[in-house]
Amino acid sequence: MKKKQSKKKILNKKKNNLSEKTAFANLDKKSNPVTTPKQSSSGIPKYVADRMARRIFFSAGIPTIMGMSVFVVSYIIVTRNIAEIPPSSTIAISALFFLLGLAGLSFGILSASWDKEPGSFFGIENIPMNIQRAKAAFKPATQNFDENI
Predict the structure, then answer these.
(1) Number of domains, the chain
(2) 59 burial type by CB count under 10 A (0-12 exposed, 13-18 middle, 19+ buried)
(3) What b/e readout covers 2-19, taking b as 16+ CB neighbours within 10 angstroms?
(4) Residue 121 belongs to a domain
(5) In this predicted model, what pLDDT tens digit does every residue of 107-130 receive, in sequence order?
(6) What whole-number distance in Å separates Cα of residue 5 and Cα of residue 103?
(7) Is residue 12 part of a domain?
(8) Top-ranked range on mean pLDDT: pick from 39-48, 79-88, 127-136
(9) Which residue pairs from 40-46 have beta carbons closer than 8 angstroms and sit at least 24 positions apart in sequence?
(10) With the C-alpha atoms ordered 119, 124, 127, 128, is the resulting torsion angle positive or negative?
(11) Are 123 and 75 contacting, i.e. CB atoms less than 8 angstroms apart?
């Protein structure tokens, strides 16, 4: 058996349906497209990122691979009775290679030249300038604002 609904509920349902339809229909008509002014990109250019990746691969990747290979070489030497290597020295040598890889990661990022043409082989002259860029990037936005624009 169907229960009778009051007239108020029926009218409210019709009003809700109509108001939803008209609200979504008029949504596109009333909205004005907002144009934003072009902002200069403050990201890292692609050619600089590629340079950083190459430097990181050589200065951090090779020591990290050597740090992992210390365990394999140590295992082979100990299992074939070539020499007796204490586990603490294996861990210490591996840790040194991993720390060298960590330093190489920082060096690879900081030594990359931001010019279009690549810099020197080691890029040591770029490190102070890139440190200044990194410091400026971490300043609050109010300090980076230039009023002479």
Answers:
(1) 1
(2) buried
(3) eeeeeeeeeeeeeeeeee
(4) yes
(5) 998 988 888 887 788 888 888 988
(6) 76
(7) no
(8) 79-88
(9) 45/114
(10) negative
(11) no
